[in-house]
Each structure stands twice: as C-alpha cells, then as structure tokens.
C-alpha cells in the first residue's frame, strides 16, 4: 500500500442559499484548492471572474514565461458571489498577483422578470464598484497585488443564456448595459489608481467605431470573446504588465 499524506485544512465558502452560478464549480475548485495547498507550489497569477475568465485558456497564451497560473473563473458568476468566494479561491492560495474581471453578469438584472429581482443602472454600478473595491482591498491586506480588468463591451445579438432564467429574453438592454459598463470602467480605473492597484483597459481595444459596442468579429455570441478577442486581451495584458516590470 502506498503511503498517504496528512490532508490540509482549507477554506471552503460553501454553497449559496439561492440559485447561484458560483455553486456549479464549487466542489471542483475546492478539490483543486486542496490539491494545490497540499503541495509546495507557488502561484504566480490567479485569475478570478466569470465566463470570460473561465473560457480563457491561460496556458495557451501565457505558458512561455514559465509562470504558474490558475483559473478560478465561473460562468454566470456575479461580483458579490466572487467576493464571497475570494478567501477560498484567492487569499488562501497566496498568489503573487490576482487578476479580477467581473461585473457583466450583474447587468442581467436590468431585464429581470420579477420586479423584486430588477436593479437600476445606478444600483448595479454601485454594487460592482463596491464588490471590486473590497476584492482589491482584501488582496492588498494579504500581500497580493491586484490587477483589475475593465469590463468588456457587449454586442447586439446576445442569445438567451440558460444560466439566467430570471431575465426577459431576448435581451433588450444592450445600449444601457454598454453605457453602464463604460461608466463602471471609469470608476474602476479611478479606484485602482487610488488603491495603487493595476488597471487593465481591455475595453478600448475591443469596441467598435461607436466606442461602446463590441466589434462583431471578436465574439461569436456578442458577449464571450472568440480566439480573436482573446488574442487581443492577451496582448493588452502582456503589454500593460510589462510597463510595471511584470512578465506573464
């Protein structure tokens, strides 16, 4: 019989008391986190976010620098559940840097069927900024350098996503969403400057001529980047970090 090692205690956020996208990968990420903490591996970069992060194959784009990079994106996640799982999926793993990208899914509440689920642009703006600020501050308190990514613009042909049954379909709020996300990006940039975090402006490089809407060739569903979109994001991230002397 092969010998075993003592299992290490880990932080687990548990599941939520409502239908939450964050629950779908909870057991998977708890398992990954325990495996990581049970071995002496130093994490260089931890990416936390929603589907745009989960679907980004980080090893394809950043393997050449020899960095240890982990992905803790969850499709459909929102900023307030990202904040709740932050101690488990970021803090206890002690990465040198954390890349935080989120907020788009919060905006689905613009089209909620039930009025008690609906949120105004101002309410969504405030909750994104609040949650992102708290994640940045938690990072700094634990010796982790936060990298704040701007929200991406969306296109005009977003399909009906199964993970959000509470919203009206088809989507009718593209213009409002894009204006809201652009305003939030300005606020996130100011917050990052105030907190001495790193801000990454993906938005500028992904929008079309109107300065608000996603270039149609960069996403097959008007929301999630395809390989062309991720190519741009990787180049923007690599170049932006190099200005701080950081290699990824």
From TrEMBL:
<dbReference type="Pfam" id="PF13472">
    <property type="entry name" value="Lipase_GDSL_2"/>
</dbReference>
<dbReference type="InterPro" id="IPR013830">
    <property type="entry name" value="SGNH_hydro"/>
</dbReference>
<dbReference type="InterPro" id="IPR051532">
    <property type="entry name" value="Ester_Hydrolysis_Enzymes"/>
</dbReference>
<feature type="domain" description="SGNH hydrolase-type esterase">
    <location>
        <begin position="48"/>
        <end position="231"/>
    </location>
</feature>
<protein>
    <submittedName>
        <fullName>Lysophospholipase L1-like esterase</fullName>
    </submittedName>
</protein>
<dbReference type="GO" id="GO:0004622">
    <property type="term" value="F:phosphatidylcholine lysophospholipase activity"/>
</dbReference>
<dbReference type="InterPro" id="IPR036514">
    <property type="entry name" value="SGNH_hydro_sf"/>
</dbReference>
